[in-house]
Each structure stands twice: as structure tokens, then as C-alpha cells.
């Protein structure tokens, strides 16, 4: 039976309320939607304790959205929140990060951006059966602590070797396996091969303190989905699990976005060159929304990563740069 998700839309724009309500229908999730156009009612609804997912505008009558969000967090309310604003506000985004919001949407946004967040919430809060396989008890305990710190709702089991892991996978289904590469007896790569031969094969994530490109390629060729190098943290787990489940990673990492790009603003054009891949993103910018138009993407010829992986991050970095240079209307 599909669970019902309680969603709050807090925005004094009835157009935005309508967009988010329609996005909820498009998500095909069982949503019970509440809406308000002021911050005080937003806080009252959040403090009611029965809101699972919320989209909150930064600027609202009676009480700012950020103030309502702050007050709710002080009361221990852990609602999955996405903040929204126009124009982009670096200060509001920074506060959203401190309050552990999931995402920040800059208006005008696409309905599919909201749908992606709704589906991510559904996946993140659904049970994820995780198996940690490592011959070191200490490492298993450390990895378990890190995985528990993830935003995903993980139910964790452990195995000290490949044979035990295979036996556990025969008895019950696991969604994700964190598998050490170097183990006595059955190696990590051989364990992957046998896991992939099972009818219900889990998503295998290799972990290793060793950096061995040949071994990594072999593991990936045998069916492993990704690689994490020890030591890693909960943010690394979140990033990889988003990828494994085909979810769009949140861009609420302001401090890392602008440094990822070389940015140039020339007249009505803003150009961003991604430092690692070499992909170039160009936009005509306008003082009034939509601030970015006529996007042109120039892929780097020698890069295997498609520019689409970085499009939403480039747009976000461009908007923040325009805001910091005071080129957008308040």
C-alpha cells in the first residue's frame, strides 16, 4: 500500500502554489497538500509535527520563510525542507545550509525540479537495506556509523567475508552492498561476480583504502556500480546513493559551486567554464526573471562526462554570481 506524504507549500504567490500542486500530481506520489501564503501560518503548520515535506518561500508576509524555518528547527522539527526565492540570495542559501535544508530553488524554476525533489524524498525516506562487507570489525563499525549519518533511511547488516555476504544475500534481499576490495579468502572482485549472478542482485559499492586503477576497472567491469576510497564520510555516501538511485544531487553546496567554475561576465553574457571537465556554459542574463535565457553548452571534446550532469549546478553558480555582483533586481 502506498504511503501518504504530507506536503506543505508556503508561498504568497498563488502561481507558485499552483505549480507545486501540479508538480505533486505529476510525481504520481500519494500527497496530501497544505498551502499557505504567509510565514506565521507556515510556522504553525510546521510545528504541528505532521508535515513530511515542505517548499517554503524566503519572503512572505507576517513572517519570513527563513524565520519560520529557523523557529521550527529550534523546536526540533526535522521536516524535509526546500527553500525558494527570487532573486537568488547568497545569505538565504547560506542559512539554508546551516539549517540543513535539502535544497534551494531559485525562481522561476521548472516543475520537473520540484518533482525531482518529491521523488527524492520518497526514495530517501523509504527503507534501504544495506550490507557492509569488510574483514575488519573496526572498519565495519566505522562504515556503519558513516552510513547511519546519511540522509537515507538505512537498515544495516554486516558480514566479515565474501562467503558470509553471499549467504546473507541468498537468505534476504539487500538494496546496496558496501564491499571491501581486499579480503582474505574470497576477494571483493570475486564476490561481485557471484553477487551479479544472483537473481536479485544488489547495487554493489566497492570500498578500499588502496588506489588501484586496474582493480577498480575490473570491479566496475564485473558489475560494481561505484567506488569509494577510505576514509569517506556521510556526504560521500549521500552523493553515491543519489547516483545509484538515479536521483539528482542537491546543489545546496554554495561554497563549492563557484570555485568549480571560471566565471566571466561580459555585457549581457555570463560564461562559466567547468574547471575539471572543460565544459563551457553560456547564458544571456537579464535583470528581471527569468534571469538566464538562451543557454548555449559547449562540451569539451576529451571528456566522457556529459555536460547535462553539470547543467543545474552551472545555472545555480551563474545566478549566485549575478546576485553577488548586484546585477539582479531585488
- Please state roughly what percent of the residues sit in beta strands, choosing from under 5%, 5-15%, 15-25%, 25-35%, 35-45% or over 45%: 15-25%
Query: What's the end-to-end separation, in Å?
Result: 46 Å
So what's the overall shape? globular
State the CATH superfamily name of the largest domain: Response regulator
* N to C succession of SSEs: EHEHEHEHEHEHEHEHEHEHHEEEEH
- Uncertain spans: none
Major sheet: size, sense and barrel closure? 5 strands, parallel
Structural class category: alpha/beta
The number of distinct β-strands equals 14
Supply the number of helical segments.
12
What is the CATH architecture term of the largest domain?
Answer: 3-Layer(aba) Sandwich
Helix content: 25-40%
- The chain-level mean pLDDT equals 89
Radius of gyration: 22 Å
CATH topology of the largest domain: Rossmann fold
Strand order of the largest sheet: 2-1-3-4-5
Number of domains: 3
Describe this structure in words.
With 330 residues, this protein is α/β, with parallel strands linked by helices. It has 3 domains: 5-124, 3-Layer(aba) Sandwich (Rossmann fold), CATH 3.40.50.2300; 126-244, 3-Layer(aba) Sandwich (Rossmann fold); 254-324. 38% of the residues lie in helices and 25% in strands. It has 12 helices and 14 strands. The chain has helices at 14-27, 39-47, 65-74, 90-98, 111-125, 137-148, 162-171, 188-196, 213-221, 234-244, 254-257, 311-324; strands at 5-10, 31-36, 53-57, 80-85, 103-106, 127-133, 153-159, 176-180, 203-208, 226-229, 261-266, 269-274, 280-285, 292-298. The protein has a 5-stranded parallel sheet, with helices on both faces. A 5-stranded parallel sheet has the order 7-6-8-9-10, with helices on both faces. Strands 11-12-13-14 form a 4-stranded antiparallel sheet, covered by helices on one side. The radius of gyration is 22 Å and the shape is globular.
Amino acid at each position: 500500500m502506498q504511503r501518504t506524504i504530507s506536503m506543505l507549500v508556503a508561498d504568497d504567490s498563488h502561481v507558485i502554489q499552483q505549480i507545486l500542486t501540479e508538480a505533486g500530481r505529476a510525481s504520481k506520489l500519494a500527497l496530501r497538500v497544505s498551502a499557505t501564503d504567509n510565514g506565521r501560518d507556515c510556522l504553525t503548520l510546521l510545528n504541528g509535527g505532521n508535515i513530511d515535506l515542505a517548499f517554503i518561500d524566503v519572503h512572505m508576509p507576517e513572517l519570513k520563510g527563513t524565520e519560520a524555518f529557523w523557529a521550527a528547527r529550534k523546536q526540533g522539527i526535522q521536516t524535509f525542507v526546500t527553500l525558494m526565492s527570487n532573486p537568488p540570495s547568497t545569505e538565504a542559501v547560506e542559512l539554508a545550509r546551516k539549517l540543513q535544508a535539502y535544497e534551494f530553488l531559485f525562481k522561476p524554476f521548472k516543475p520537473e525540479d520540484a518533482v525531482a525533489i518529491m521523488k527524492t524524498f520518497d526514495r530517501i525516506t523509504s527503507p534501504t537495506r544495506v550490507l557492509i562487507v569488510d574483514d575488519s570489525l573496526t572498519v565495519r563499525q566505522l562504515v556503519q556509523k558513516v552510513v547511519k549519518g546519511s540522509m537515507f533511511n538505512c537498515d544495516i547488516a554486516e558480514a566479515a567475508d565474501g562467503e558470509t555476504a553471499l549467504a546473507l544475500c541468498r537468505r534476504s534481499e539487500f538494496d546496496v552492498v558496501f564491499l571491501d576490495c581486499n579480503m582474505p579468502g574470497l576477494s571483493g572482485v570475486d564476490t561481485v561476480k557471484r553477487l551479479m549472478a544472483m537473481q536479485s542482485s544488489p547495487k554493489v559499492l566497492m570500498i578500499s583504502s588502496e588506489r588501484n586503477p586496474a582493480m577498480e576497472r575490473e570491479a566496475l567491469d564485473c558489475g560494481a556500480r561505484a567506488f569509494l576510497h577510505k576514509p569517506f564520510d556521510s556526504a560521500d555516501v549521500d552523493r553515491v546513493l543519489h547516483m545509484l538511485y538515479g536521483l539528482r544531487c542537491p546543489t545546496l553546496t554554495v561554497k563549492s559551486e563557484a570555485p568549480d567554475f571560471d566565471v566571466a561576465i561580459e555585457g549581457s553574457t555570463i560564461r562559466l567554464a567547468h574547471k575539471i571537465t572543460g565544459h563551457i556554459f553560456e547564458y544571456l542574463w537579464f535583470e528581471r526573471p527569468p534571469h538566464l535565457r538562451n543557454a548555449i553548452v559547449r562540451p569539451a571534446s576529451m571528456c566522457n562526462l556529459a555536460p547535462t550532469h553539470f547543467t543545474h549546478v552551472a545555472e545555480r553558480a551563474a545566478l549566485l554570481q549575478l546576485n553577488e555582483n548586484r546585477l539582479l533586481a531585488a
